[in-house]
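Q: Okay, next protein. This is histone deacetylase from Panicum virgatum. I've checked the sequence twice, so it should be correct. Can you predict the 3D structure?
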Amino acid sequence: MASDMQPLSGHEIPSRVVENCGVSDHACHGKCQSCDSDVKPSCAEVNGISLLIGSHTDGKASKEKCGACTFTYDCAGPDGCLIATNGSCMAVDELTQQFEREQAGAALEDLVFSNDEEEDDSDWDPASGLVMNRWFCLNCTVPNVDEVMYCLNCHELKGSGVDGYDAFKTQIAEAALVSPDTELPEVSTAIGFDERMLLHSELEVKPNPHPERPDRLRAIAASLSAAGIFPSKCALVPPREITKEELLMVHTPDHIESVEQTKNMLYSYFTSDTYANGHSACAAKLAAGLCADLASLIVSGRVQNGFAMVRPPGHHAGVKQAMGFCLHNNAAVAALAAKRTGAKKVLIVDWDVHHGNGTQEIFEGDKSVLYVSLHRHEYGNFYPGTGAAHEVGIHDGQGFSVNIPWSCGGVGDNDYIFAFKTVVLPIAAEFAPDITIISAGFDAARGDPLGCCDVTPTGYSIMTSLLTACSGGRLLVILEGGVNAKLLHQIQRNDCLDAVVLTLASPCGNLHALISLEL
């Protein structure tokens, strides 16, 4: 994965091998599953890193690979955003050593809210030395003082979990299956899901929970079941792992091999926040395989539309690197699968609050794929730092990358719908795609503590309906980011993802609703 990294000393760093089992570790660091040996290759120090804000912590995206970065949050501000107080960057060895030192005797507050600057103790007060116990919200991951029973950011009850997933599991057997070999289903919407994707999780103990965690998918599944969407309104796509040949159309052989190697490791990291364990390679291939098959089924007319309920996400994964929680680029795999099935032109609309730098890189020279992204950018200071308006593609693909960068947080339904009406839809109509793929991150939703935007379920439903009309109803929604599980799964809150899937299941009714809104 890191074949283009520059070593700290300026000399080439050879790929090291764990002597006990022969597993190469050039792509990541972690612990070997076969022999329990520590694997800690040297990594390049980041050159010219600027402090970035957002939900990811591995620095500004670029063609040059960077080392591990740490990013410390303090607390939720008045607008619900996490306030970053300390950004730093270090080589992986240094990061691991610091983590081990901190674990030895530091308090939780010291681990999460540390400050590298020397403190001025001239006005020291004995009361200020007291350690305040905190708990992290399972829903939005924001820290709260121990005495508070409800999260100050999302109002989730302390100690609550995800309910309803067991009901979803029992309904899987009742769902109709749709594949090229089955009869046409009575429903028009297909869903891609496999429980093995829940095995992808961060094993290394950290002081706060990782935003991209299995509970997100459990919450979504429980939501679809409780809302009556699954299995009555959707068919299920049989899962399969994507083949290496299919992945080679998107990623380099080194990248594919680096992800595959993680199955021999107990845990590993591609960047400081992009983790893997022994099940991650399988989960990533299942996610990509489901997206590819859904796209093929839609283009071939077996189903009208589909929702890929998958993880790990994909839109930050580039040609040769995993980053931003993403291992393989699911949207890119789906787009190429659609083209193999007969689509001549594919539209990808990315409404995740972060720019999909990986997807743009993969298709920046391809005029048969139009990539449109709406994201926080803030003049390059919001993760991953790419996606400026002047990034329009290269060579034959010039003009087929369209970026709509927000200069600040707080953007909501009106902003997105105005951008759709004035930019996205006119360009899409001229492009005339055969299928539309949505990279559907929900971290721009109202209440997300890191996205800090204001899109509501109604806004997401409207955008979905508008895009349905772009390609004759052939629409594939692929799950990307969004850390606030409550916004995804609580039915009584008219959640965002249910609104999108309901729009897929009854697109005509929602389009009539749009007309009545006189958008």
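A: Here is a summary of the prediction. The two ends are 46 Å apart (CA to CA). The mean pLDDT is 77.
Q: Noted. On to the next one.
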